[in-house]
Design brief:
A two-stranded antiparallel ribbon has the order 1-2. It is mainly α. It starts with a helix and ends with a helix. α1 packs antiparallel against α2.
Length: about 190
C-alpha cells in the first residue's frame, strides 16, 4: 500500500513538473505586503512544494498523534495485562485457600464424626453396664427373695410341726376346748 502511494506521488510530481515547464510566462503575484513578478513555472512549483510541506506537517502531526495514542494504548494494555496477572494470582491464592478450608472442614467433620462415634460407643457401653447392673441387682434380689421364701417355708414347716406336736400333747393331757377361739387357733 505504501509502495503504491509512493509511485502515485512520483507520477503526480512528474505531471506537475511537465505542466510547470510548459508554462514559462511571467506573472504578477499579489500577497499581503506587496506584489512580485515571477515565472509561472516558479509559482506552480512553489505552490506544489508549499502543499507538499503542509501535507508533510499534517502527516508528521498525525504520526505523532498516532504514536501517542498507540503508546497510551500500549501502556493501557500493559496495565490491563498486569491487572489480569494480579487477578489470576489472587484467584489461585483464593482457590488454594478454599482448598485448604475445604480440607480443614472435611477433617473437622471426620474428627467430629469420630468423636460422636466414640461418644456413642461410650454411651452404649454405659447403657450395657447399667443394664447388667440392673439385671445383676434383680437376680440378687430374686435370689434373696428365694432365700427368704425358703427360710419362711422352713419356719412355717417348723411352726406346723410345733403346732402338730403341741396338739399331740394336748390330746394326751386335757380334752380340747371347743369354741370360737379354739376354732380360730386351728
Amino acid at each position: 500500500m505504501r509502495l503504491v502511494f509512493i509511485v502515485l506521488m512520483i507520477i503526480l510530481a512528474l505531471l506537475i513538473a511537465a505542466v510547470a515547464v510548459l508554462n514559462s510566462e511571467v506573472v504578477t503575484v499579489n500577497y499581503l505586503f506587496g506584489q512580485i513578478e515571477l515565472n509561472l513555472f516558479a509559482v506552480i512549483l512553489g505552490s506544489t512544494l508549499g502543499g507538499i510541506l503542509i501535507m508533510m506537517f499534517f502527516s508528521i502531526y498525525r504520526s505523532i498523534h498516532n504514536y501517542i495514542n498507540s503508546e497510551s494504548q500500549r501502556n493501557l494494555k500493559k496495565e490491563l495485562q498486569r491487572r489480569v496477572k494480579t487477578l489470576e494470582d489472587e484467584k489461585k491464592k483464593l482457590e488454594n485457600e478454599l482448598g485448604k478450608l475445604q480440607k480443614e472442614r472435611e477433617e473437622a467433620a471426620a474428627k467430629s464424626h469420630a468423636e460422636l462415634e466414640a461418644e456413642k460407643k461410650k454411651m452404649e457401653d454405659e447403657l450395657n453396664r447399667q443394664r447388667k447392673e440392673r439385671e445383676d441387682a434383680a437376680a440378687k434380689e430374686h435370689a434373696e427373695l428365694e432365700a427368704e421364701k425358703e427360710k419362711l417355708q422352713e419356719k412355717l414347716i417348723k411352726q406346723q410341726k410345733n403346732i402338730g406336736g403341741t396338739e399331740a400333747q394336748d390330746d394326751t393331757g386335757s380334752p380340747e376346748k371347743k369354741g370360737f377361739w379354739g376354732f380360730l387357733k386351728k
